[in-house]
Amino acid sequence: MQQSTALSPAQVDAVHAVAQAAAAADGVAPLSEETLLALDRTPGGDGTTATYLTVVTDGTLVGYGHVAPDGSSEIVVHPDSRRHGHGRALLEGALGVRSDVRVWAHGNLAPARALAASLALEPVRELWRMSLDVESHPAPEPVVPRGFRARSFEPGRDEQAWLDVNSRAFAHHPEQGRMTLADLRDRMDQPWFDPAGLILVEDQKSGALAASHWTKIADEGGEVYVVAVDPAYQGRGLGGVVTALGLRHLASRGVARIDLYVEGDNAPALATYRRLGFEQSALDVMYSRTVHERLPR
Q1: Residue 216 annotated as binding?
Q2: Where are its TM segments located (predicted)?
Q3: Do domains 2-126 and 136-255 have the same CATH topology?
Q4: What is the pLDDT of residues 247-290, one digit of tens each?
Q5: Were both Cys, which of 73, 121, 211, 223 would link to 216 (CB 3.0–4.6 Å)?
Q6: Could you say which DSSP state residue 141 is in?
Q7: 199 is in an annotated binding site
Q8: Is 74 assigned a ligand-binding role in the annotation?
Q9: Does the annotation flag 223 for ligand binding?
């Protein structure tokens, strides 16, 4: 196993190929969007860079481990190269980078659970994927409250305002609240990005951004990507309004199913999404040594 802070273009392609093969075999993507976007980033001058772990056999990359600057981690082994100890080697390598590493098991599949248990890792966080059948559960008619207006995101104008609201809305979230302008631009450069699908609700009097719903369409499916309400505007029903606006937008694009991700211990959000017709469809679990307590929402 090799450890580095940079990957060659050929290695990046190989990691994508391994991840795609694993997703096809397991029915769940092993690497998150952020991990895939970070593959070809160069080390930062401030030292905040990921650590890349690779397993190569006969000149072919067959396993990959990613340890992010915040200590979160993901690993994947090509289906044809499993049962040879590569997954354990990658997990031990991640623990060698940081003893407090937190490793995602996307889908929480049985082999991942067994591997985590064998190294005394325990669940510290659950992330639910919830899904909605668009035909069976049409979105409610959104009514924007008086004093507010809805419009689409305008690139070159709205980036900083969106980042500011996102940061305040997710101040205690372990990933979402840390999004930077570079992170935002990475996503805006993706083929799926559509400014019309990033819906903003703003205060008509001040022009301030109050809430937003970033939707995503990829692989013919829709996603509630990010819903954010500025804490200064909470309690005015804007979360429900902007959520409905996004659901209506996705339905208008012809998607049959809409997915979202929500923390498993966020009871109010779970209740809200259930009322809209969403049901749990998958589970991601984060494992760590007992040095960690459950992360805040």
Answers
A1: yes
A2: none
A3: yes
A4: 999 999 999 999 999 999 988 889 889 999 999 999 999 999 86
A5: 223
A6: P
A7: no
A8: no
A9: yes
